[in-house]
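Hey L., structure's done. Input below.
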Amino acid sequence: MAKLQTEFHNFIQNLKALELFIKVQDELMNINYRSRSLENNEFTKAATELISDVVQLTNDISEGEYDIQIINKANEKFADKGVNIFTKEVEYKDTPEVHFKISNSQMEREVGEVMKMADLVTRQQELLFRNSLTSLMIYFENLISNIIKLRLSKFPNAFNPKEKTIKYKDLMDFESIDEALDHLIENEVIDIMYGGFKSWVFYLNKAGVNTKKIDFFTEVINEAYSRRNLFVHNDGIINNVYLNKVSKEYSQDVAKGQRLSISEDYLIKAVNNVKIFGVILLLEAWKVFDKNGHDDAYDYIMGKAFDSMKEHDWEFAKFIYEFLHAEADNHANKIITQMNIWLCEKELGNFKEIEESVKKCDVSGLQTHYELAKLSLLENSDKFFEILGHNPDSLDTEALGEWPIFKYMREDSRVNEYLQDVESIGMIN
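Output:
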């Protein structure tokens, strides 16, 4: 269990660090660019605003929001700087392009400098996002290779080491048979990893690792993996290798020779997809490779899922709780995990779809705090505080303050009354 727990911890921490790195670096780049608009030179400020406004106008027009009045207002704004903004029809485009002319030489120089800075920021962001996608896939590949390595170490006959050979001169470098076996395992893992993402999943499926819960992530992650390879080996320019690797969903709107890009939105989604897929894959492998450590693993994962809810990582938490719900071996854990799945669904904006299921949930045979959790989900505050008033010891203050499911009740002023009652009872006792 210790090795799998370490893999879980390292994978999650690496992706958290990557997400933070992307956010901080991107903000720093934008701050550096925007700082020009705060300089005392009025032409520098105006030039920065002009470029920003032209970009916004271009986006608005491309989305069908063209209005001549917007152009007129923009011209009024920059009239004293010798700027004339206008649109120009282009034959091969459905919408006009935004252009501008500058008659003021100082403004023209400043616009040139701002455009140079904008180009540098764009290139820096492109470099950041490329490197971040590469790092993401390195973390993912490390996780997969370590899962495979753990399997082969525990079940060495799985790859039939009797059929493997070691050169005599290499054998002399090993101090024991175990060390030689480790060498064979390392080589086997390398051979498997050369096959690419889909071959890894196929291998683990054959090894008994169930990926049905996350199969729908396969194509989107395969595209991200293929895109990383495209940037590493072909500068992001689409080739036949990419087109043959990805599904039609991702190849139908692009063509050979076209250069792909990586936006922040694309990257954040890729991190989230890889995180969910990688963790569920690891948990499913945990079931197969460490059957005796079920209880310890369950408690550990339950704690990690709870932490994810506290961090408002609702989609990730939902997938973990769904795994835990399927693995729960008693009614209480079934209810707790189901409640938390519903909470995640609610925070993801899907409460209407599950509201009836919440209402029908039978908690009559369980402790009172389960009923309170259900009432909080339904935001039935009157009934919640009525029951809590009759049973002030049914919900400890830690659960009320820490369990995210009670967030809907914590803002109610009656919470303070409950806390005062609990404090009074404690003083009397």
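The longest strand covers residues 83-88. The CA atoms of residues 131 and 217 lie 22 Å apart.

-- N.
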